[in-house]
Amino acid sequence: MSQPEPNIDEVVRSIAEETDTPADTVSRMYADTLADYRHEARVFDYVPLFAAKKVRNELRHKSHRKH
Fold this sequence. Notes:
Blueprint: H1 8-19, H2 23-40, H3 47-66
Protein backbone atom coordinates (compact mmCIF):
# COMPACT_ATOMS: atom_id res chain seq x y z
CA MET A 1 0.00 0.00 0.00
CA SER A 2 1.46 3.37 -0.97
CA GLN A 3 1.65 6.42 1.26
CA PRO A 4 -0.68 9.36 0.58
CA GLU A 5 0.98 12.34 -1.11
CA PRO A 6 1.62 15.17 1.34
CA ASN A 7 0.07 18.56 0.67
CA ILE A 8 2.90 20.33 -1.15
CA ASP A 9 1.77 23.80 -0.03
CA GLU A 10 1.87 22.68 3.61
CA VAL A 11 5.31 21.12 3.19
CA VAL A 12 6.69 24.25 1.52
CA ARG A 13 5.13 26.56 4.13
CA SER A 14 6.49 24.46 6.97
CA ILE A 15 10.04 24.38 5.58
CA ALA A 16 9.91 28.12 4.79
CA GLU A 17 8.85 28.95 8.36
CA GLU A 18 11.38 26.60 9.97
CA THR A 19 14.30 27.88 7.90
CA ASP A 20 13.25 31.53 7.52
CA THR A 21 13.41 31.16 3.72
CA PRO A 22 11.00 32.65 1.16
CA ALA A 23 8.29 30.18 0.13
CA ASP A 24 9.07 30.57 -3.60
CA THR A 25 12.70 29.55 -2.96
CA VAL A 26 11.59 26.54 -0.95
CA SER A 27 8.99 25.64 -3.56
CA ARG A 28 11.58 25.64 -6.37
CA MET A 29 14.07 23.63 -4.31
CA TYR A 30 11.40 21.12 -3.30
CA ALA A 31 10.15 20.69 -6.88
CA ASP A 32 13.69 20.21 -8.21
CA THR A 33 14.63 17.76 -5.47
CA LEU A 34 11.38 15.83 -5.86
CA ALA A 35 11.95 15.54 -9.62
CA ASP A 36 15.53 14.30 -9.07
CA TYR A 37 14.42 11.69 -6.54
CA ARG A 38 11.50 10.51 -8.69
CA HIS A 39 13.80 10.17 -11.69
CA GLU A 40 16.08 7.78 -9.78
CA ALA A 41 13.54 6.02 -7.55
CA ARG A 42 12.34 2.46 -7.86
CA VAL A 43 9.89 2.82 -4.99
CA PHE A 44 7.99 6.10 -4.80
CA ASP A 45 6.18 5.84 -1.46
CA TYR A 46 8.55 7.98 0.57
CA VAL A 47 10.06 10.19 -2.14
CA PRO A 48 8.15 13.35 -1.02
CA LEU A 49 9.36 12.86 2.56
CA PHE A 50 12.97 12.38 1.46
CA ALA A 51 12.77 15.46 -0.78
CA ALA A 52 11.37 17.60 2.06
CA LYS A 53 14.07 16.36 4.42
CA LYS A 54 16.84 17.15 1.94
CA VAL A 55 15.56 20.68 1.26
CA ARG A 56 15.10 21.35 4.97
CA ASN A 57 18.63 20.13 5.73
CA GLU A 58 20.19 22.14 2.89
CA LEU A 59 18.49 25.34 4.04
CA ARG A 60 19.43 24.77 7.68
CA HIS A 61 23.02 24.10 6.67
CA LYS A 62 23.13 27.34 4.64
CA SER A 63 21.63 29.23 7.58
CA HIS A 64 24.30 27.96 9.97
CA ARG A 65 27.06 29.00 7.56
CA LYS A 66 25.85 32.62 7.62
CA HIS A 67 26.17 32.87 11.40
